[in-house]
What does this fold into?
Amino acid sequence: MKMHKRKLLNKIILLTYLLIAPFASLADIGNKQWTKECEKDNKKNCVIAINNQVSVSDSDKKQTLATAYIRLGSTIERKMDLVDGEEKTYKLKEENKLVPVIVVELPFNVNLTKSPLVQIDKKNIFNLPFSHCNAQDGCVATVAINDEIIKLLKAGKELTVITGVHGRKENLSINFPLKGFSKSYDSLLK
It folds into this structure.
């Protein structure tokens, strides 16, 4: 039952995330530390992000392999508040709550039957369910995260996403340094 509620909550958060205006461009994201990027027309629609880049053969150029970013989604939290203690009457109270959502854009040809594994400093943390694949973003995996995971990210040195590759036995391990994560995340909350 608890797992069902968590899946439902993740679906609601993901739906809220998808209904928000899409983020314009993550082109300015670097690969050395987390940075905050906001939409040009809406400075309140921001993410913190980092890229993983690989060298292009026979060139000095680099190409983005994957991007990890966190944005704030919202969910409605419902709870019963005591109105009258003597009569034991309650009122359902609804409150919007901001929830961090981690999104990882992976390249095409990942094995969609295996959810990518997220590690912080080589410790397994959770699996990311895929939400969609398209030509603009590649294959996208998204999940809501909690304050405990944010603390691990702030204290960690490296975020690793391990995913299967279609037609290969070996997994692909994509590393993102956590340098600048704390400062960027705190600025996202302001």
